[in-house]
Amino acid sequence: MPQISNLRLLISSANHPRILSPLTLKPPPPPPPSLSHLFRLKHPFSHTQNPRFLFAAFSSSYSRKPRNIEQPSSLGRRNSSSKADNKGKMAMEEKGPTAESLGFNKRRAEGKDKNDGKKNLQLKVRKLNPVNTISYVQILGTGMDTQDTAPSVLLFFDKQRFIFNAGEGLQRFCTEHKIKLSKIDHIFLSRVCSETAGGLPGLLLTLAGMGEEGMSVNLWGPSDLKYLVDAMKSFIPNAAMVHARSFGPTVGSVDVSTASSGTSDDLYVPINDEVVKISAVLLRPRYSKVSDTTKEGSSELDDPLVGVNHLAENLLVRRMHSTAEFALKPGDLSVVYICELPEIKGKFDPKKAAALGLRPGPKYRELQLGNSVQSDRQDIMVHPSDVLGPSVPGPIVLVVDCPTPSHLQELSSIHSLTPYYSYPSEESKEMCKKVDCVIHLSSASVTCSTEYQQWMSRFGEAQHIMAGHQPKNIEIPILKSSARIASRLNYLCPQFFPAPGFWSLPQLKRLSSVSKIPSEFSSCQVTAENLLKMLHGNNVTNGGSATMQANKVMIEEPWLHETALPSCLEGVTREDVEIVLLGTGSSQPSKYRNVSSIFVNLFSKGSILLDCGEGTLGQLKRRFGIEGADEAVKDLRCIWISHIHADHHTGLARILALRRDLLNETPHEPLIVVGPRQLKRFLDAYQKLEDLDMQFLDCRHTTEASLKTFESNEDKDVSESACVPSDQKNGSTLFAKGSRMESYWKRPGSPVDSAAVFPLLKTLKEILRDAGLEALISFPVIHCPQAYGAVLKAADRTNSTGKKIPGWKIVYSGDTRPCPELVEASRGATVLIHEATFEDGMVEEAIARNHSTTQEAIEVGDSAGAYRIILTHFSQRYPKIPVFDETHMHKTCIAFDMMSVNLADLPMLPRVLPYLKLLFRDEMIADDIDVATVAI
């Protein structure tokens, strides 16, 4: 791509705006049309009319359902932007700018859209085939390159799939490597926390939305799973979680167990069919364990567990009085899972079968299944042992998660694992179950200890897979497709697409020393690799790869449309503010785009997150490196969430949990999270599981009107109602009392403590002031109940000559249709970050889903006089770059994951766009999957 380097020259000449690219062939395009046509009915209004009045005028006409709305599943990508644009223009010419073609879905905004209705999700019933079943265990390398989540493990059978742990990024990893999540039947959690279950909400929602009916899965975990399920109910359909079951003692109660004759302690059997038996052994920290020989019944969310004995209540009471009382806390319980496959039948001998009078046919299969049959020619019963060779014990795989040294003390004394240990004597050897493989999910600080290594040696010749502790995996990105694009973009323009901040060499050396395994224990240990597959036999496959071909011939037509530099950018430095687009896709993660998250880097003054979709922490670590991301999380001033949809907030718990851990030894204040009041319901429920060290502030208390009232009453003792003036309590005139959209503002949500609002607003004001910001303002938008956009306004500053320089202004639309509230908030914006989910030819789909098209987003920015517009939140139907028309994009740029826009580079931002379109002119060749394998 030699000619792409022209852009580097172009960027470097930013101080000489009159220098033109040698390939510039077109004059600057004319200014785009005003947004005013969006606010016209059949009789056009004057351009000077108040957009509030105009929007109120047409919104009442949009109560009818839009006609001929295509469903997302039936919509394909347009062949070209010009075709899409022409289609949209033809529709406009035929229908005119009618209410139905340019409105919004009122029922969706109110939360009443039938397309978002409840589904009766069903479990898939699969017919198992215990004969000739292919099976293997595979490491799903979630979090290995960034160390932000626990690895996942896939147990694969022809007719069944089991996943152990579902950390953030699992969906994206499986999409990258073509692992079909629709085939998953059961999900097991080794612990219940953000590290192991951060990807679970998004996964459940994805499965629920598949096909016409959707699907559900069985979810298993220790008893504190209840807290996670309760939290997820605030935004996930209950039908997706009705098959959630837990086992073990009730968390928060006294850990008293009862004796169980004939069974091992703490052993539960969730799955026991003809293909596999999965047992769960509970692992408590030493300080909370009461008795090594006792057991308590299960705590369930619905149906009782298979194989769990329910003991008499009076025996439990007697043990309670005779045992010391220790209460289990959420997060204390961990689980060791034991996967036992049935014995492998000996080879069928057709000659023996024929000698016993059997004809070839169904009876052969019955014998292979272990059933006796009547001979066809002789009056005898033929038994499996008559025609089958000697059976071989089935493989056994253990999945071990020992999170702390306190759990390690208990691990070595659990009696349930005794049958799986190897003993040197021949007599005891016959009584043991030979373990083929042990997968260790535990941290390196635990597994590298002498005590843990000695415990591992009890399994004899078993293969040990140390998941997540391979420095090689940290150097190699898991999301290869995304990393490949990031590399190409970095070559194109390093200013806007900096190189990823992966581990530095000194960090890798330190990690290698930490993960070093003592030589006396290393002979049977394998460090896990991404997609490592444990097979039965010596089948080893390695996928080939196809390299991408660079564009050799490119026609570049960059815009060099000159605009006046805003006064707020006078004297701006590279240490003032940087906008990092961590996630630029919508709905669910894909190979190339993660879901919504924007990191506003204020450098020495801290940072702010606008939305926090799943995988936000991993993206931070890919952008800034492990240590850099930790510093960024510690320096967070505030997190702002636009609305309750999962692609905008499910990464929040992981970020908050990491911040809590990083600042554990440092005096600090809880982080303020600003969001819609439905989000408080989720956070309150989740905090019963693990402390998130945060305070919640409702977006409606950070609207412009509310903040003005707060400032006018700052020295008074005011209530919540005083913070929201009577004429603005519904957020704006658009949602005023008695309006058709009033219910949009009054959706159910957790009540906010009135007494807590005023001090929180005061704290937020101080935090923003310390960060050099004047205000963080929320404003309602048209998408779903309680959806907001945000304004970040910097404080004015004075230059060396005493001249007052106005502060910059960043506006984020959230998810929305074009609306006057957004236009008003964007007046004079330095940067408008606007969602552009759909291409221009999909206006009706945008209306149905209450999103915006590319052209609509640009017109909002133009109408408001925004200096620069960044388009984001693209539908995942556009995997690499969205379809767009260049005609009106003279101050606009398309966002990519990891794109970093420094305010000092804003004048050059639109000049990147033509190069981006040329860079992705041809489809890239997808690499085949490289699968590392090891035989067990």
TrEMBL record:
<keyword id="KW-0862">Zinc</keyword>
<dbReference type="InterPro" id="IPR013471">
    <property type="entry name" value="RNase_Z/BN"/>
</dbReference>
<dbReference type="InterPro" id="IPR027794">
    <property type="entry name" value="tRNase_Z_dom"/>
</dbReference>
<keyword id="KW-0255">Endonuclease</keyword>
<keyword id="KW-0378">Hydrolase</keyword>
<comment type="similarity">
    <text>Belongs to the RNase Z family.</text>
</comment>
<dbReference type="Pfam" id="PF13691">
    <property type="entry name" value="Lactamase_B_4"/>
</dbReference>
<comment type="subunit">
    <text>Homodimer.</text>
</comment>
<dbReference type="GO" id="GO:0046872">
    <property type="term" value="F:metal ion binding"/>
</dbReference>
<keyword id="KW-0479">Metal-binding</keyword>
<dbReference type="InterPro" id="IPR036866">
    <property type="entry name" value="RibonucZ/Hydroxyglut_hydro"/>
</dbReference>
<protein>
    <recommendedName>
        <fullName>ribonuclease Z</fullName>
        <ecNumber>3.1.26.11</ecNumber>
    </recommendedName>
</protein>
<dbReference type="InterPro" id="IPR047151">
    <property type="entry name" value="RNZ2-like"/>
</dbReference>
<keyword id="KW-0819">tRNA processing</keyword>
<dbReference type="Pfam" id="PF23023">
    <property type="entry name" value="Anti-Pycsar_Apyc1"/>
</dbReference>
<keyword id="KW-0540">Nuclease</keyword>
<dbReference type="GO" id="GO:0042781">
    <property type="term" value="F:3'-tRNA processing endoribonuclease activity"/>
</dbReference>
